[in-house]
Amino acid sequence: MRLFAACLTFLWFALSASNASGGIFNPKTATLENGLQVVVIENHRAPIVTHMVWYRVGATDDPPGKSGLAHFLEHLMFKGTEKAAPGEFSRIIARNGGRENAFTSQDYTGYYQTIAPDRLGLMMEYEADRMTGLVLTDELVAPERQVVLEERRSRVDNSPGAKLREQADAAFWLNHPYGVPIIGWEHEIAALTTEDAIAFYRKWYGPENAILVVAGDVRTEEVMELARKYYGGIPGKEPVVRERPAEPPHIAEITVSLADPRVTRTSISRRYLAPGTFAGETRHAQPLELLAEILSGGATSRLHKALVVDQGIATGAGAWYDGDGLDLGSFSLYISPKDDVDAGQAEDALKAQIDLLLRDGVSDAELARAKQRLIDGAVFARDSVTGPARIFGQLLSVGGTVDMVETWPEKVDAVTAAQVNEAARFVLSGPGFLRSVLKPGKEAS
Q1: Which of 8, 20, 188, 276 has the maximal Cβ count within 10 Å?
Q2: What is the mean pLDDT of residues 269-290?
Q3: What separation in angstroms does the CA of 262 have from each of 212, 258, 438, 442?
Q4: What single string gives the DSSP state of each residue in 238-262?
Q5: Rounded to an integer, what distance in angstroms lies between the CA atom of residue 78 and that of residue 94?
Q6: What is the residue-averaged pLDDT of the chain?
Q7: Does the pLDDT at position 113 exceed 70?
Q8: Per-residue confidence at 298, pLDDT binned at 50, 70, 90?
Q9: Are 187 and 21 in contact (CB under 8 A)?
Q10: Which residues are marked as active site?
């Protein structure tokens, strides 16, 4: 399940549980004078706190011809400042019993630490320092560029599935930079310079383009005071306007196929352009989320039951919806046929399920079960500290609001079968889609 859906599912359960006991889920938010948005989520179940800084910039904001720059800068953010030597911040976190990580997506970049609450001020001090105080030299940048290149070779070049996904993304997005890999193309990573990284950093990193999220065993007033102390003195700039090309309609069937001797079983998928939470016909976003759950949510889901259990032609079948980015998203369906089943026969069976969906739609009973599964699947996440921080950070990074999170359960619960069926027909009835095939065989020379 996608991060946004999974985290919001946690929120649904948390809200339901808190409402049952008479309370409400109540994050506090404020914006400092320099533009930094601060969100505090109190959770006193365990003596820990997660401190996250999200930047409204991701791989899709890489300059043309410099793919991988946002991800490269994420690596370089650990190279130190005038105050802190390279790696010093990480050593301080480890000495204080904490853990850290960072991530880059198409639409945002984040840095976080999880640590004891009495060390929160220390985390803010060092994170605020590297927000605008990063020091980069060729001696620091060149070795890290090789690290990123090796990461690409390990994660992409050595994985047939990753290689196909990269090629499929590039073929699917006709005009939008979502088709460029987050890690970057190898030849463009190799050409990234210290000057590229510094220019990108100065353009995008600053309090006016950041969100501070603190979740855990803290008091809101104390967090706000610490935020003003450590982040409030950083000068803000004029926010950067994110300008991206629009994606045209998809009107043709495109096939991307990869054969590799390391592949043991064929997998076939169909991917359709779809509205997102913030782009396109946004009214379809929540119905599509529930459609994916109906088609793919567990052993009783429609595709698994029809293709794996009843017909017995597949080892796996399902669907997923990716619609929580800043721009348009996609809706995908897949099938992995059994070894003795012809791939064409399996794909025909998947197509028959799409036709059945478009003709007869989903039922009220299927929709009710999908909603219930979302709640049931979140039970074990109820005590999470990092989960809520990710909910708010991700949503706010792409233009969402706190209120969107707070009202999500009620809005999803209000979705009707008719709305799900309308969304399915809107996305799946058109002629344009990407067909991806990963299969055993000899690699192309």
Answers
A1: 8
A2: 97
A3: 43, 11, 11, 9
A4: PPPP---PPPPPP-SEEEEEEEETT
A5: 14
A6: 92
A7: yes
A8: confident
A9: no
A10: 74
pLDDT of residue 22: 33
Which of 223-227, 262-266, 298-302, 414-418 bottoms out in mean pLDDT, i.e. has the lowest?
A: 298-302
Helix (H) or strand (E) holding 166: helix 160-172
Residues in CB range of 151: below 8 A, 6 or more apart: 183
pLDDT of residue 326 exceeding 80:
yes
282 secondary structure, DSSP code: G
Q: Encoding tokens for residue 209? A: 């383009």
Alpha carbon distance 330, 412 (integer Å): 19
User: How far apart are the two ends of the chain, measured CA to CA in Å?
Assistant: 36
81 forms beta bridges with 134
pTM: 0.92
Joined together, the tokens standing for residue 132 give 């605008």
**Per-position DSSP letters for 169-234, written without gaps between them:** HHHH-SSSGGGS-TT--HHHHTT--HHHHHHHHHHH-SGGGEEEEEEES--HHHHHHHHHHHTTTS
Asked whether 321 and 289 are in contact (CB, 8 A), the reply is: yes
